[in-house]
Amino acid sequence: MAPKPLTFPGIFSALLAFSFSLLLFCHPIIGGHNYHDALRKSILFFEGQRSGRLPPDQRVKWRRDSALHDGSTAGVDLTGGYYDAGDNVKFGFPMAFTTTLLAWSIIDFGRNMGPELKNTVKAVKWSTDYLLKATEKPGVVYVQVGDAYSDHSCWERPEDMDTLRTVYKIDNAHPGSD
């Protein structure tokens, strides 16, 4: 007698049973969320994106000082702040938005952050120190450091960057979109 071929309902039932068994055995892996670890890694990511002279308590040990002359072509100190999205450009408005959300998270959830509260406060301060420099001159906002076109054409560590560090500003002669 020839073996009976598997029909769609038979295959479907087998796959369904297999899927449920995976969920049964993998539930602790899939469903167990460690929010403290996620918060720690999120704040650690910001330390990895730091630009400028890094502090002694920098936890990402493979990073070194970078972009120590940012703003010098415009006669302003624009060192510090954060690189954006894994590249070496600093975009002021996304950085300001992110800093605002981090600050709000401290206000709303700081009591639940445990030991990461101090690191989150440091992350906000790292950004606000830069943003204060970028808005120090009356009527001028420095909105970007680095040339996105040349920077996005390569991928290199901030410590090794050799791309343009062009400074872009908004003022009366160079208005923004708003």
What's the short story on this structure?
This protein has helices at residues 8-31, 35-48, 92-109, 116-134, 148-151; strands spanning 90-91, 141-145, 167-170. By secondary structure, it is mainly alpha-helical.
Describe the SSE topology:
Layout lengths: L7 H24 L3 H14 L41 E2 H18 L6 H19 L6 E5 L2 H4 L15 E4 L8
Antiparallel strand pairs: 1-2, 2-3
Helix pairs in contact: 2-4, 3-4
Give an account of the 3D structure:
Keywords: Carbohydrate metabolism, Cellulose degradation, Glycosidase, Hydrolase, Polysaccharide degradation, Signal. The protein has 178 residues and is mainly alpha-helical. The protein has one domain (34-170). It contains five helices and three strands; from the N terminus they run ααβααβαβ. The chain has helices spanning 8-31, 35-48, 92-109, 116-134, 148-151; strands spanning 90-91, 141-145, 167-170. Helix 2 runs parallel beside helix 4 and helix 3 packs antiparallel against helix 4.
Question: What fraction of the residues are assigned to beta strands by DSSP?
Answer: 5-15%
What's the N-to-C terminus distance?
79 Å
Helix-strand topology string: HHEHHEHE
| Poorly predicted regions | 12-16
Determine the oligomeric state from the structure: single chain
The backbone outline, from C-alpha atoms, is: globular
* Amount of helix: 40-55%
Report the sheet with the most strands, covering strand number, pairing sense and barrel closure: 3 strands, antiparallel
Number of helices: 5
Mean pLDDT across the residues is: 87
What's the number of structural domains?
A: 1
Spatial strand order of the main sheet: 1-2-3
Rounded to an integer in angstroms, the radius of gyration calculated over CA atoms is: 24 Å
Based on helices, strands and strand pairing, what is the structural class? mainly alpha
Q: Write down how many β-strands occur, each being a DSSP E stretch of 2 or more residues.
A: 3
